[in-house]
From TrEMBL:
Limits of the Nitroreductase domain: 10-186
Family statement: Belongs to the nitroreductase family.
Pfam family, one: Nitroreductase
Name of the featured protein: NAD(P)H-dependent oxidoreductase
Keyword NADP tagged: yes
Lineage summary: Bacteria, Pseudomonadati, Bacteroidota, Flavobacteriia, Flavobacteriales
Cofactor: FMN
This protein's UniProt keywords: Flavoprotein, FMN, NADP, Oxidoreductase
């Protein structure tokens, strides 16, 4: 933790990226691992993360992102797409993976499987879509922290038209919905925001011990 707070103070939502600098494959793999290890409800990870490298697609997505330059200027564009509706097969696959990973009989998980199915499969579809979308923000949190440790800039973005993203990337047909976007890369020296003090609530206002 000796450098964690320092790195969190260093990071900010970058507005202008240096197009000449690219995130290395090894660093990208580290960021992917951080996302993979993120917490999620029940450990279900009800989302998929698309790493969009195709420049033509990124140009199309820029138009669906209110023209924001980070979409095309950043080294990589990540789209976090939540699963709109979890079905029984998805939960079964989760438990098969659990049994295989932990080398235990899948029958030993029957009680928890039944509990999870009762809790999730009876959820109204609109509520489920909101719930799975929230899980993508936990994954984003891991990305932000890991990237700061590597001195890689990240801009989390909600400023985009989700349905247009879904159409451009063919997400709806896969049962997915664009939940949030993150661009990663390296700040441009002309981005003046990097020189401004970070503005946050004072601890006395943010925290309350009861």
């Amino acid at each position: 933790m000796s450098t964690f707070i320092e790195h969190q103070n260093w990071r900010y939502a970058t507005k202008k990226f240096d197009t000449s600098k690219k995130v290395s494959n090894s660093d990208l793999q580290t960021l992917k691992k951080a996302i993979q290890l993120a917490a999620s409800a029940y450990g279900l990870q009800p989302y998929k993360v698309l790493i969009v490298e195709n420049p033509e697609l990124r140009t199309q997505l820029q138009t669906a992102s209110w023209g924001q330059s980070q979409i095309v200027e950043a080294s990589h564009l990540l789209v976090f797409a939540n699963i709109s509706k979890i079905d029984e097969a998805y939960i079964d696959a989760f438990f098969e993976n659990t049994a295989n990973t932990r080398n235990i009989p899948i029958e030993a998980l029957d009680g928890y499987k039944t509990f999870m199915k009762n809790a999730i499969l009876n959820m109204p579809e609109d509520q489920m879509n909101i719930w799975t979308s929230k899980q993508t923000y936990l994954a984003l949190g891991n990305l932000l922290c890991a990237a700061a440790e590597l001195k890689i800039d990240v801009t989390p973005m909600e400023g985009f038209e989700a349905q247009k993203y879904n159409d451009i990337l063919g997400l709806s047909a896969k049962g997915l919905n664009a939940s949030l976007v993150a661009t990663i890369g390296y700040r441009h020296e002309e981005d003046q925001l990097q020189h401004l003090a970070k503005v946050r609530k004072p601890e006395t206002e943010l925290f309350e011990t009861i």
